[in-house]
Protein: RNA-binding protein KhpB
Amino acid sequence: MEWIELTGKTIDEARDLALEKLGVHESEAEVEVLEHPSVSMFGRVKSMARIRARVAPVAAPAKEERRRRGGSGGDSKRSGGRGQDRKSGGNTASETAAAPSAAPASDKGQDGSPSGEGAQASRGQRSGGGRRQDRSGTPSDPSAAPMTAPEVASTVEAFLGGLFTAAGHTVSTTSEIDGDRVDVSVTGDGLGVMVGHRGATADAILELSKAVMLKEAKGGTEVRLGVDIAGYKVLRREALESFGGDLARQVAESGEPMVLESMGSIDRKIVHDAANAVDGVSTESEGQGRDRRVVIKPS
Structure:
């Protein structure tokens, strides 16, 4: 994993820029402070904050932690067979992923865009067991080989198949492997309820899948995992790309900047890329942490 270096007026600003550039949640990044900002007695910035960041390697939980987790009872049995489709009145994945309309904002107005999956990854986010995930890259068993991408794909597919069967859904799972990146797709009927409002349930399922991967990766792993349910991520990306492009064209025609609603780093990157593909506009981000938002302005 290669490091990138960025600067900002504050550590938080530099960190947010790094997350946008890497296109990951804060929980998936490793950040080191190289230089703190210095300010004169009159409040002027004398030197910028400087950090380096990379996509964090993933390691298995420590042995003691696994013992604590495993002390609650006997082995659980995986549900056999495929369940029946759940008949739910919930939204479909395409309805959940749709980007809302927006209006120009004269002074940090909100456009009603979705907060995005990245907005739910706050600082200090903890894994499903309530304990911060170990992302130091240190394997729990030094003698074990690191978990490979095909092994991660097989493990996560088996877990998701059992999870969705237990929830009453008949699904199929497929994996796409690209270097150290594994993307598992789950398809089936009536899966809108498993996506949830603005992808909240899908985000939770991704975190569960990562926890399973960490538990099984006794030798650690550098694999990055993604889970897509019913094509939600593809639909959401397409909606955000269309959303960002439409707003950029409005800004180019009107000459008035637009300040969007705060959203996560992954969604911001999609909007940045889509808007910057339109001639006559430029984008930047303002705010910090969960309040960080995209600004589209005429160039």
Notes: Residues 70-90, 106-137 have pLDDT under 50 and may be disordered. The radius of gyration is 21 Å. Residues 107 and 297 are 12 Å apart (CA to CA). Helices lie at 11-22, 63-70, 93-97, 149-166, 192-195, 200-216, 232-254, 265-276.
